[in-house]
Design brief:
This protein has about 190 residues and is α/β, with parallel strands linked by helices. The chain has helices at about 15-30, 75-80, 100-105, 115-120, 130-140, 145-150, 160-170, 175-189, and strands at about 5-10, 30-35, 40, 45-55, 70-75, 85-95, 125-130.
Length: about 190
């Protein structure tokens, strides 16, 4: 049976590393895995999305509306933006951080209020986490992606050791310990 995930965020938040880490984990378990490239204005702070599909045989990574089993969102507004892609009864793992888009910064629009409640009201299973605070506790705000992967890890039957090996294979050596700490903080949250 094929499973589909979306990893969404704002350019520069580490969505590509998150999808690489997840893809590596799934490959070690023998799944056929397809991961899309990042789509969007990733270098300008714009919305980005990566698709990850896995199963016995997968032909495309692309996720259409109503097909995602899980959406991992690095930012609240991005979770709301991609909510239509979540299947009925699906799960959203979301960072409660708010990254203000340009229309909000310029005062042309207001940032939507109560987004976590609105996500829950949609019927989605919402796992909201303050990933930024946990990443900073691990040593760097840039580890939000690993905190979210730690939270996501509860949805898989991979061992902690398997995740740690994948982290070691996915990040530069000088960042391994910090990323492992961030992952574990997310896993325990």
């Amino acid at each position: 049976m094929e499973k589909k995930l979306m990893i969404v965020g704002v350019g520069g938040q580490g969505t590509l590393l998150a999808s690489k880490l997840l893809g590596r984990m799934l490959l070690t378990r023998g799944y056929d895995v397809k991961v899309s490239e990042v789509h969007g204005m990733s270098q300008r702070g714009g919305s980005v999305v990566t698709y990850v599909s896995f199963g016995d045989k997968v032909y495309s990574p692309i996720v259409d509306k109503g097909e995602a089993d899980v959406i991992v969102s690095f930012e609240l507004l991005e979770a709301a933006r991609y909510l239509p892609y979540l299947k009925k009864g699906g799960t959203i793992v979301v960072n409660t951080q708010e990254t203000l888009p340009m229309p909000v910064i310029t005062g042309a629009m207001a940032y939507p209020a109560d987004l976590v409640r609105k996500l829950k009201d949609s019927g989605a299973a919402v796992e909201a986490i303050d990933a930024l605070t946990l990443a900073e506790e691990a040593g760097t705000a840039r580890a939000v992606n690993l905190v979210l992967m730690g939270k996501l890890s509860a949805h898989f039957d991979f061992t902690e050791e398997e995740w740690m090996n994948a982290i070691e294979s996915s990040v530069p050596p000088r960042f391994i310990d910090m990323n492992k700490k961030a992952f574990l903080l997310g896993r325990q949250a």
